[in-house]
Amino acid sequence: MILPIVAYGDPVLRKMGEEISPEYPKIQELIDNMFETMYKSSGVGLAAPQIGKAIRLFLVDTSGFVDEDEEDDEGLKDFVKVFINPEILEEDGEDWTFNEGCLSIPDVREDVIRPEQVKIKYFDRDFKEHVEVYDGLKARVIQHEYDHIEGILFTDYLSPLKKRLLKGRLSNISKGKINVGYKMRFPKK
Length: 189
Known about the structure:
By secondary structure, the protein is an alpha+beta fold. The chain is 23% helix and 32% strand.
């Protein structure tokens, strides 16, 4: 089932996600619905707060970064993962800039600086624990989605000037004055 994406301005996007257990109601169905929603909206990651649930769950599929005939040096085509109750243990490496966007903040893309490597502990969809290190675009997507379960948006990393320049566009998004190709839920007035 395709779920509506929560738009910028909704308070759930600012909440710290709560840990969940294997007994969380219909967790497998929720994960499947999140994947379906992410694919329908052409995303490469989706966090539970973006579908209105303040829980520590996000998923990624970075195949959208790679064209069919393109070399896949980073292994992005097959990087499909579910992260439950993740904890970033370490961020390392050179800081690098990448132009980020967000399904909850449509039509806004800005350069964000993040460390190139991340070490993360998490449970997969079967609640098996992992500790892994990722770098490059994999790390970038993980850091972006992880921020969502911490109540942080990519726009929080922008300079005060950039934030002022985006204020009108962000306000329009929160008021539903935007046309996107996927289902959205806008903050109640």
